């Protein structure tokens, strides 16, 4: 009988009314979806990772995963709005009107990060966590405006429907590792937890500090998972063209494609999962973690620029080079950045940090719309209308995302005008006519 994995957050019975900023909220529909308790699987990590963003011809058999529905979002632009939160008391559901909570609680995010650091120190699962965050975010399609149809980091990867995609083989192990942390911090969404784990893994492996923000809203059910086929293939007929097709769809450019590929400095590929790599090499036979697989670099738990150096030299047969890796030094445009990163680790770290943060934000729906920063905001940009009114200055990507989030909070986007408020338009017209009449009379 297949082992069942319970991915439903536990709901403790409060004896006193919780703080409105930390109180977890669920909808009535979600309450009806709650499943009975099941035996939680004991985690045995069999692999640190395989290729980030790569296709696997085999898929892991996973059991049905259920999750609570995320809270409905209400824009902070509307004052004094209130909603009914579900409260659990004596085994019954009741409603109470309280101030809206954020998608994720900032204090719980900070505490969850410390638990993730401990997990990384004991399980050596840095590559696996990066891959989890990337694969949840990497389904984004910039040509689809609606959320969650457009994909992106929205926690959909927790559902069996998406876990069964070939490119996600083995990621159920990452979910098993993170589930106790999710149970402990119910005020953190799955979408945020996945991205928090990935960014923390990069930093703990010696990589750059990622300028992350949180507050991502979770999808509510498996019917909102993206279709299969949005993630890259490791060995397509035309590797460079394939990479552009996938990453351009997400709104990323050649520099960002090469920088993100540099994360292969971490991890191993296992032939039984991806169809790529050797069963074992001199660098992987003794672990850490479960032994085996083939790594891209000799020190496959250290984040540096050795990935680019090793691919350029191609001197070690025990190191993996996928067709999509080789394309970085074969394609003229990619090669410019790959050569640069092989020579300049500082430049690689800078570009990687920016690309990682961008990928983790694309397609996400934030509550609050501007997101939550838990480490200060060194790159924050204050919007001053006068700076942009002349039309001579372009908005930065960060500011575009912020403005888009503000519009989406009230039902629109920068690409789509909001529906007209006819009553307001009439008032404005009457006021204008009154002023004009007054001026003409004078």
Automatic annotation (TrEMBL):
EC number: 1.11.1.11
Biased composition (Basic and acidic residues): 269-285
A GO molecular function held by the record: L-ascorbate peroxidase activity
GO biological process, one term: hydrogen peroxide catabolic process
Protein's job: Plays a key role in hydrogen peroxide removal.
PANTHER family the record matches: L-ASCORBATE PEROXIDASE S, CHLOROPLASTIC_MITOCHONDRIAL (PTHR31356:SF1), THYLAKOID LUMENAL 29 KDA PROTEIN, CHLOROPLASTIC-RELATED (PTHR31356)
Protein name per Swiss-Prot or TrEMBL: L-ascorbate peroxidase
Highest classification ranks of the organism: Eukaryota, Viridiplantae, Streptophyta, Embryophyta, Tracheophyta
């Amino acid at each position: 009988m297949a082992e069942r994995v319970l991915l439903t957050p536990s709901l403790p019975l409060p004896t006193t009314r919780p703080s409105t900023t930390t109180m977890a909220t669920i909808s009535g529909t979600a309450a009806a979806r709650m499943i009975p308790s099941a035996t939680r699987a004991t985690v045995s990590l069999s692999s640190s990772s395989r290729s980030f963003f790569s296709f696997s011809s085999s898929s892991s058999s996973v059991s049905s995963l259920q999750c609570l529905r995320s809270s409905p979002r209400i824009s902070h632009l509307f004052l004094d709005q209130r909603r009914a939160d579900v409260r659990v008391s004596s085994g019954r559901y009741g409603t109470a009107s309280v101030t809206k909570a954020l998608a994720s609680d900032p204090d719980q995010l900070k505490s969850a990060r410390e638990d993730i650091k401990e997990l990384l120190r004991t399980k050596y699962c840095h590559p696996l966590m990066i891959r989890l965050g990337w694969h949840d975010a990497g389904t984004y399609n910039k040509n689809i405006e609606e959320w969650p149809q457009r994909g992106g980091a929205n926690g959909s990867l927790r559902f069996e429907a998406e876990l069964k995609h070939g490119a996600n083989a083995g990621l159920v192990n990452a979910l098993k590792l993170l589930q106790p942390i999710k149970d402990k911090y119910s005020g953190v969404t799955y979408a945020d937890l996945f991205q928090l784990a990935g960014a923390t893994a990069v930093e703990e492996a010696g990589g750059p500090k990622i300028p992350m923000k949180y507050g991502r809203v979770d999808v509510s059910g498996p019917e909102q998972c993206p279709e299969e086929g949005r993630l890259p293939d490791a060995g397509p007929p035309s590797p460079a063209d394939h990479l552009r097709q996938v990453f351009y769809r997400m709104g990323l450019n050649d520099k960002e494609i090469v920088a993100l590929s540099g994360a292969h400095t971490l991890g191993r590929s296992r032939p039984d999962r991806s169809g790529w790599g050797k069963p074992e090499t001199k660098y992987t036979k003794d672990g850490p973690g479960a032994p085996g697989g083939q790594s891209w670099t000799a020190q496959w738990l250290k984040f540096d620029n050795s990935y680019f150096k090793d691919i350029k030299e191609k001197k070690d047969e025990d190191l993996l080079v996928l067709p999509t890796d080789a394309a970085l030094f074969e394609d003229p445009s990619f090669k410019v950045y790959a050569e640069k990163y092989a020579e300049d680790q500082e430049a690689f770290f800078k570009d990687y940090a920016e690309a990682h943060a961008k990928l983790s934000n694309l397609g996400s729906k934030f509550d609050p719309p501007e997101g939550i920063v838990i480490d200060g905001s060194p790159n924050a940009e204050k919007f001053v209308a006068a700076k942009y009114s002349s039309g001579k200055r372009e908005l930065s990507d960060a500011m575009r995302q912020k403005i888009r989030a503000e519009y989406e909070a009230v039902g629109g986007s920068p690409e789509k005008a909001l529906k007209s408020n006819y009553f307001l338009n009439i008032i404005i017209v009457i006021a204008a006519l009154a002023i004009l009449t007054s001026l003409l009379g004078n």
